[in-house]
Structure formats: C-alpha cells, structure tokens
Amino acid sequence: MEDDFAQSRGADDLFSDEIDPPEAPQYLPTPAVLSAENIAAHTSQQEAEAT
Q1: DSSP symbols for the chain
Q2: pTM for this prediction
Q3: Phi/psi of residue 42, each to 5°?
Q4: What is the pLDDT, as a whole number, of residue 9?
C-alpha cells in the first residue's frame, strides 16, 4: 500500500512540475496554435478568392 502511494505521489509530483512554470505551457504552444490558425485562415481565404 505504501508503494502505491509513493508511486501515485511521484506521478503527481512529475505532473505538477510540468504545469507549475507558466512560461513553458503558455509560451510554447502559442506560436504553433497561431500559425495553425493563420494557415487555416489563409487557406480558406484563398479558397474563397478562387471560387
């Protein structure tokens, strides 16, 4: 039982370490999300002009 608790606590610690620094989650995905949105908007704009 102690081992299970230690394991689950270790997983929680790893997870909280990942989400604790706001710089990483907020900064890293943002350019990818923005470029994906820009590509989608650009593509739909081209399709609208083509029709």
Answers
A1: -HHHHHHHHHHHHHHHHHHS-THHHHHTHHHHHHHHHHHHHHHHHHHHHH-
A2: 0.28
A3: -65, -40
A4: 52
